């Protein structure tokens, strides 16, 4: 069975919102790609804390690829990396905030990066005078260059926020052509810049490792470490296929539910998907019905029309949705809550 990689949900949500705020993409373009904000986080009462929720890595890749396709700013990755949003911190970022010194935080970050994105990899090399940090992504993932530049920029931004000290790199190598507008590149990475390099790399002063992190709390660090390590175990073990399929169904419903699309995202044939779901004691049809029933009640309580609820749940028409409601509830939902379009002014 193929590997179903997940990433931090709040990180995906943060990128989604930043791309909209920076006018890189429009809501219509996101919806056309099948990306809806309301499906990125599980808001149910029994859901995991937002900081620990996971979504398919496919969503993160799609956002970065949309950004690359629609942006006219060569420095976009740098701009995104400079946005410091504590509300978007997952369990790992929160843990880093309470490490004692930068060196400890970098070691924790490198060992536990899978909590953010298992496909992102950092290499740290210590010399007598310099610390070299290299970032890349798994070879089978099509991350654009701006994603790596965002990571380098974010590292500098986060270190400044956590220490109150701005560090200027000794040198920087980037796997991109030299841009016409150099101002932000030089502002963040210094003037010792090399383009068209074979990797994305920063060199920082060795003394930077000893910089203390302001406001670090040992008690919170120990608590967050325990939470992060438990979360990492779950990530490494991998979610059950049924849970992954359920997440993809939720994401696909408002657009157009397609079994073939879900199979393509999982790199599985229909037969293989059916077989593995059966081994987990469920089926694709059961998962679709379960999720539709859960979402139907929520949407009806929000006051959506029956036609709108039907569209959001991916039914071909309202009459099919009515029949499903009779199976689920034994009756059509309260018309005072969900009125047909024709009855609304």
TrEMBL record:
Record-given protein name: HTH araC/xylS-type domain-containing protein
Occurrences of domain HTH araC/xylS-type (ranges): 243-339
Annotated GO MF terms: DNA-binding transcription factor activity; transcription cis-regulatory region binding
Keyword annotations: DNA-binding, Transcription, Transcription regulation
GO cellular component: cytosol
Originating species: Pseudomonas abyssi
Keyword Endoplasmic reticulum recorded: no
The organism's taxonomic lineage, starting at the top: Bacteria, Pseudomonadati, Pseudomonadota, Gammaproteobacteria, Pseudomonadales
Superkingdom as given in the UniProt entry: Bacteria
């Amino acid at each position: 069975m193929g590997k179903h990689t997940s990433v931090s949900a709040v990180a995906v949500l943060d990128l989604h919102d930043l791309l909209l705020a920076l006018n890189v993409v429009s809501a219509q373009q996101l919806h056309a790609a099948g990306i809806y904000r309301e499906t990125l986080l599980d808001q149910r009462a029994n859901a995991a804390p937002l900081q620990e929720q996971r979504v398919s890595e496919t969503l993160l890749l799609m956002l970065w690829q949309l950004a690359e396709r629609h942006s006219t700013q060569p420095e976009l990755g740098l701009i995104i990396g400079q946005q410091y949003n504590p509300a978007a911190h997952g369990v790992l970022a929160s843990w880093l905030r309470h490490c004692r010194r930068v060196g400890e935080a970098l070691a924790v970050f490198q060992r536990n990066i899978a909590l953010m994105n298992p496909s992102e990899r950092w290499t740290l090399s210590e010399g007598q005078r310099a610390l070299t940090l290299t970032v890349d992504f798994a070879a089978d993932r099509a991350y654009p260059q701006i994603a790596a530049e965002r990571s380098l920029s974010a590292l500098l931004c986060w270190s400044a926020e956590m220490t109150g000290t701005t560090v200027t790199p000794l040198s920087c190598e980037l796997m991109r052509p030299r841009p016409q507008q150099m101002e932000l590149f030089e502002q963040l990475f210094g003037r010792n810049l090399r383009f068209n390099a074979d990797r994305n790399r920063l060199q920082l002063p060795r003394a930077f490792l000893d910089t203390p992190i302001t406001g670090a709390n040992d008690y919170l660090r120990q608590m967050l470490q325990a939470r992060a390590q438990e979360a990492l175990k779950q990530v490494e073990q991998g979610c059950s296929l049924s849970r992954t399929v359920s997440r993809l169904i939720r994401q696909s419903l408002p657009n157009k539910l397609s079994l073939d699309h879900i199979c393509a995202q999982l790199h599985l044939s229909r037969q293989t998907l059916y077989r593995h779901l059966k081994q987990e004691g469920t089926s694709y049809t059961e998962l679709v019905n379960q999720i539709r029933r859960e979402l139907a009640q929520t949407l009806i309580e929000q006051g959506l029309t029956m036609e709108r609820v039907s569209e959001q749940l991916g039914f071909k028409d309202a009459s099919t949705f009515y029949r499903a409601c009779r199976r689920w509830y034994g009756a059509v939902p309260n018309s005072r809550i969900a009125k047909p379009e024709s009855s609304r002014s």
